[in-house]
Amino acid sequence: MQFTSSVFVAFAALASLAAAAPTSPTEDVPAILAREAANSNLVKRCYIEGPNGCARCIQQYNLTCPFFGGATCSKGARKWLDRVGVYRTGSWVLLGIKSLIKGPTGMDYAEGGSLVGAARLWCFLLLTFAATLVFVPKHATLLRVGATLGVACFQYAFYMAIVDTSITPAQKSNICLLSWGFFMSSMEQILISQINTADLLTKAEKDGDNDVGAATLLFRAAGMYFNLRRVGVRGEISVKYRRTITRARFLYAKVAEVLVWYLIMDAAMSAPRPENRLVTRDKQTLFRLSNLSLEDLAFRLFSTLGIWLVTFVCNRLNHACAAVVSLMLGLSQPEDWPHLNGSISACYTVRGFWGKFWHQLYRKTFTSLGDFVPDRIFRLRRGTLVSRYTRLFLAFLMSGLMHHCIGHLYLFAADAMFASERFYAIQAVGIAFEDAVQAMTAHVHIPMPVRRVVGYIWVLVFLSWSTPISSYPSMRAGDIGQMVPFRVVDHFIQS
């Protein structure tokens, strides 16, 4: 009975969202464009011509496109409406969700760019996810698919709410990347791992007769949303755990880590932007390397090192901040926070770089999603090369899809919108290539130190070759602002 009523409430909520949406699906494109253009704080660029093309029709809120002629540019209008998430399939439900984040004055988030409204949406998302794990049985596939669609709607609305805020593009990309990562993890937990009430109980609770209250289960289920590495539960990722340490000592160490990473990030993001001539589209080529000068090659190498250093610091800063907040609120213990990264000595192969050194936050998510197609749809036999590399490619493709929002946030040109997907697909190709080379040289007597030195050079060259296809479009996007909320380094420099 409790389950039935919960399902009824869930469907009633979805119905109310649809009812809250506009009732006039025939509203014409120019009317929607005029309303959204007047309210949106987005940096508006023409999607037909790209970020450097004709944007006057939108920047000046002029519905007559001076590029296409006298009539209203329906193509530009439709493209831009897709950009703000208004005129697309299912938009009426999404607009109904938007109504949930209107404040007491009735002001929509697009007008005020409210982070509070986005946070409110995120709370609805978290509650929907937790209720699904607790109240929907693991084998109720249809209900779980419906719940996942609900979570997806909330996630998309949250994403658009963040896009419309006045924070810097760098801060938006950080928040949005994390949110899409959490969403993909939640989707995997609901549909593939099928996390349910049994996974939320301790061994003593399973063996005992005491019932655990619904509120406690919902709280634990909400924690699963953030437990990307599934620490302490089914599907846990194998990572390096810390030595036993007291809570106070661990907290002090994490606070110090936050301060260090914060200063490094502040300094890194204060560096000047590269000259445009160094990051043009032809400079990110993968195959016409003979056309590059020594300066281009040197910049390619050092910019790659810089990009990965900033990304590494950003990941560590996010992780340390989350640990500090969680520990201070008493929501976790030191053993819940294993090391984020593995040993850098594993980076003598591309597989070692991604599988051992780099953070494993999304490993369970991406491998499970990547396994689903070859295992359950194509029924490929495990152990075959086709199965192995299909799973590898799909796992990296999932990572590329998660990073797709960067192109949206930084207003990449049309030919660079799928830069992230291409980059991560190339990583799978690189791993397949080095697997083949290792197989062919397995019987060749080469001392391990020599293999490792050659391997480190190979990984550095491979990343310098492949990274620009995703990093150069970001550099061409112009000033993306600071990642940290408060500047510290500039004050020291000015003083």
TrEMBL record:
Residues 1-20 form the signal peptide. Residues 337-409 form the Wax synthase domain. It is a multi-pass membrane protein. One of its GO terms (molecular function) is O-acyltransferase activity. It is found in: Membrane. One of its GO terms (biological process) is lipid metabolic process. GO terms for cellular component: membrane. Pathway: Secondary metabolite biosynthesis. It comes from the Eukaryota. The chain crosses the membrane at residues 113-136, 142-163, 249-269, 297-314, 389-413, 453-473. InterPro entries: Wax_synthase, Wax_synthase_dom. Belongs to the wax synthase family. PANTHER family: LONG-CHAIN-ALCOHOL O-FATTY-ACYLTRANSFERASE 3-RELATED, OS04G0481900 PROTEIN. This is Wax synthase domain-containing protein. The lineage of its organism: Eukaryota, Fungi, Dikarya, Ascomycota, Pezizomycotina.
